[in-house]
Design goal:
Length: 416
């Protein structure tokens, strides 16, 4: 921030606000060490798997100091700056992760970390990171410490940090609920697709134990059609709201349908009716990595100006035997994912293909249509909760972004 600062604020160089800490470790080849790393985009510290001193070899490592400001010098320009905590005590970091402790009567560590999550803070790190070799741009630490920070009085710094940290806490709590709901959904799906609802008698089959009244059928006997897409020339940019787009393979995932993952079609391109994506469709990827090939989802209700690409398929159920919502659950279960991955072909690890003959051969446990409806309804209730939590998390992130900008530029002032 080179210009004016809000009334009562000052501009101070980082070198006057923090001091470097470097506690070199004399590596024992037989000892076990835990290294830290820093994620880009302000996503904080992560812990690497344990390693031995022998594997560290000649690498220079330093003891992690809790409550320090730390940077990844290769990706600082991308927001790879964070704070250490007591969780990281006794861990180590390579020379690529310099650490600084703040001067406590001048700078609040929380304020500093939040500032470097703003566009202005990331820009400061980028200005001190010359180079253009891909994403590797090394931070010039001397230049970085000469950077000027717009600084409110310490009590105001502490209040700003507390407000932003409380929003971070709410986001983390919401994300924990989302993860727990995801696990509940997976467990519920496994239970419902193998045990059903209210059954007391079971039988052994080629796909495991299922309710005695259920049948086992190959998917080919339960579907009306599998419709492949087409990939005409298209721009990489997503289609405008009033234009047509063709799906990217990333639009279809076990996490749901992502309509924004598309490429814009040329104006006037004639989209065949059979290729139009419709609400309620069950979609599947026929080509992707080994882990993602065969991923599926159900398109939510609505109208979409989108067409299937050649790496996606529409699986059309025979509604006399199989509901679309139950089909989507069946294709999303771990057994299906394992089957499609195992039968995918292709020499490239980054692109495997699953043929329609293998999709049609997949064995399905088939309850009555009424039980299919009840199973789908129970899973949908969990998905509704999942969506509500995800919406809250998005709202909190939006709130945080607005607060971050307003508080750290002085547009909104707080009373300590």
């Amino acid at each position: 921030m080179a210009g004016e600062v809000p009334r009562g604020w000052a501009r101070r160089q980082l070198r006057d606000l923090c001091t470097p800490v470097r506690d070199a470790v004399d590596v024992d080849v037989d000892a076990v060490y835990q290294e830290i790393g820093i994620r880009s985009h302000g996503k904080g510290v992560f812990i690497k798997p344990p390693t031995t001193g022998r594997k560290l070899g000649e690498k220079r490592v330093f003891r992690v100091v809790p409550d320090a400001f730390v940077a990844n010098i290769v990706f600082a320009w991308e927001g790879a700056l964070a704070r250490t905590t007591t969780e990281h005590a006794d861990m180590v970091a390579s020379h690529r992760f310099p650490m600084w402790q703040v001067v406590p009567d001048r700078l609040d560590l929380g304020f500093l970390v939040h500032y470097f999550r703003t566009a202005a803070g990331v820009a400061l790190a980028a200005q001190s990171s010359p180079g253009g070799a891909g994403r590797n741009r090394t931070l010039n630490q001397t230049a970085f410490l000469r950077s000027f920070l717009p600084l409110p009085p310490l009590p105001e710094q502490q209040k700003i940090a507390a407000i932003l940290s409380s929003v971070d806490d709410a986001i983390r709590a919401t994300e924990a609920v989302i993860e727990q709901t995801r696990r509940v959904k997976q467990a519920l799906l496994q239970e419902l697709l193998t045990r059903g609802i209210g059954h007391t008698r079971f039988k052994r089959t080629e796909i495991g134990e299922i309710p005695a009244g259920w049948g086992v059928s190959a998917l080919r006997t339960l579907i009306a059609d599998i419709v492949p897409g087409k990939s005409p020339p298209a721009d990489d940019a997503p289609a405008a709201a009033d234009a047509w787009g063709v799906l990217k393979v990333s639009a279809v995932s076990d996490g749901g349908f992502r309509p924004s993952q598309n490429k814009s079609l040329p104006s006037g391109y004639p989209v065949a009716e059979e290729h139009v994506v419709r609400g309620g469709d069950v979609l599947m990827t026929r080509a992707n990595t080994a882990d993602l090939v065969g991923a599926s989802c159900r398109v939510p209700p609505g109208e979409f100006r989108l067409m299937l690409c050649d790496k996606t398929l529409r699986v059309v159920p025979d509604i006399a035997r199989l509901r679309a919502d139950f089909l989507a659950l069946t294709l999303a279960q771990p057994r299906a994912r394992a089957f499609f991955s195992a039968h995918a072909t292709g020499s490239s690890a980054s692109m495997k293909n699953i043929g329609q003959e293998h999709i049609r051969a997949f064995l399905v446990a088939v309850p009555s249509l009424s039980e299919q409806a009840e199973i789908a309804a129970r899973v949908a209730a969990v998905e509704d909760s999942q969506r509500a939590s995800a919406g809250l998390a998005r709202s909190l992130r939006t709130t945080k972004s607005a607060l971050l900008s307003a508080l750290l530029t002085g547009r909104v002032r707080v009373t300590p």
